[in-house]
Design brief:
The protein is mostly helical. The protein contains nine helices and no strands. The chain is elongated and about 60 Å long.
Amino acid sequence: MPVMNTTTGSRGGYAKGRATQQEIIRAAILVFADVGYHGASLRDIAARVGISHPGLLHHFPNKAALLEAVLEYRDAVDEESFEEDLARGTGYFDALLNLVERNRLRRPLVELFAGLSTEATSSDHPAHDYFQRRYTRVVREQSAQLRERAARGGLAPGVDPEQAARTVVALIDGLQVQWLLSLERPDADRIDMAADLKAYLTLILR
């Protein structure tokens, strides 16, 4: 009687489970981006993946847990490409411009972020703490980068690093919304997020 290779079997089951989780996350991105967190239905997401509602709950016990996984995925996509640029020796703000340019090809993730960041201003939203932490971290990180540049004479006169960092973050988020709205217009009228961000950085960086 043949002996089952339990190691191979368990690895195969794990890989299949991971693949299903990724399918669920990708489907959830589209649904959350389209109707928001509160309008999203786990049954609808499960149907898009082709699994049952209990099957989805096997991987994510509730909608808040799925939202957390979606946000982690979104961050991982951004951070991977950003860190790769930095590892190649690209300057911080050039890497930031590259990230904004890449987001032009990631419309669902941009829609997801734009919608959820607005929803999450409510303190009872499950992503409220995530966005609070994220904005604190990103502004602190960019402030540090700008202070370092200031120490080397790399900032325009009168530029305050903390204020400029908040402005850069606000500009990126605002440009994403304007870009999404411009997608229904002719190509000539569409927002170029990277070009507009670069124009502002040119004003403050030396």
